[in-house]
Each structure stands twice: as structure tokens, then as C-alpha cells.
Amino acid sequence: MTAKTLRLDQFIPYRLSFTAALLSDTIAQSYERLFGISIAEWRVIAWVAELGSVTQQQICARSRMDKVTVSRAAIALSGQGIVQRLPNAEDRRSHLLALTEEGRRLHGAIAPRALELESGIFSHFSAEEVESFVAMLRRIDAIVLGDGE
Questions:
Q1: What is the DSSP string of 66-102?
Q2: What's the rounded Cα separation, in Å, for the pair 14 and 56?
Q3: Assigned fold of 33-117
Q4: For 1-24, how does the pLDDT look when each residue is reduced to its tens digit (9 = 90+)?
Q5: Which residues contact 42 (CB under 8 A, 6 or more apart)?
Q6: Could you give the CA distance from residue 35 to residue 41 in angstroms, rounded to a whole number?
Q7: Backbone region of residue 131 per phi and psi (left: phi > 0; alpha: psi in -120 to 50; beta: other values)
Q8: pLDDT of res. 90
Q9: pTM value surpassing 0.90
Q10: Most buried residue among 38, 56, 122, 127 by CB atoms closer than 10 A?
Q11: pLDDT, tens digit, 9 for 90 and up, residues 123-142
Q12: Whose CA is closest to 23, among 137, 102, 128, 144?
């Protein structure tokens, strides 16, 4: 029996990580240049916009960003008047993050650009390919988290 040789460029976990970092870096440069925010700050804004109000811990769980990254992004965004910290009636040890009017305006400006960037990349694939790709990513998530096959 011949042992399989590890070739990093063909190792799927590496390929996923490499491509994700490449996409993230490209998007981060665009957000920094156009809006003066980091990718972590954008992810916080996007989750707060989607959920209305959310704790930093919930953002960590949904985004897989670490606590320090989310905390720094929230502090920066709060300092810029983009998010506000509200009392959390369910857990007095944490705060809820909510967008300010400025935050809603910024989200309204960035979201179409984010969709445009996504479209610019994935327009090179058929709708079926994109749908299959997203479905596969979700299945990988479920398997790794122990929720799937």
C-alpha cells in the first residue's frame, strides 16, 4: 500500500484557508480604502444590522472571530459613533450592540458594495455552481461542528 503524499496546495483545508484569506484581504482593502473600516469592523456592523441588537459573544459565535478582535472592533465603532452599547436585560454583565443612525447610514453604503464585490467574483460561475458551493460549505461546517454526517 502506497502512502499518500501531502501536497499543501492540494490539501483542501489549506485551499479553503488560502482562498478565504485571499478574498478577505481583497475585501478588507476595499473597505479600508472606501469606508475607512477594517474587515472585523464590517463584520460587526453587518451582524448588528442583521440582528438589530446583539452581544459581542453572539457575534463571536456567529462569525468565528475571537473575543479580542470583536471587542476591539466594537470599541472602535463605538468611538466613531457607529454602534452604541445598550444595557442587556437578559445578562447584566454584557451589553447589546446596536447601530446608531450613522451606523445604519454606513451599513447602507457598504452593503451594496459588498454584494457588488461578491457578484464580481461569483459571476464567473453558474448559479448552480454557486448554490452547490454554498451547500457544500454549509455541510462542511455541520460536519466539523459535529452537527452533520
A1: -HHHHHHHHHHHHHTTSEEEEE-TT-TTSEEEEE-HH
A2: 29
A3: Arc Repressor Mutant, subunit A (1.10.10)
A4: 667 899 999 999 999 999 999 998
A5: 27, 31, 35, 110, 114
A6: 11
A7: alpha
A8: 85
A9: no
A10: 56
A11: 999 999 999 999 999 999 99
A12: 137
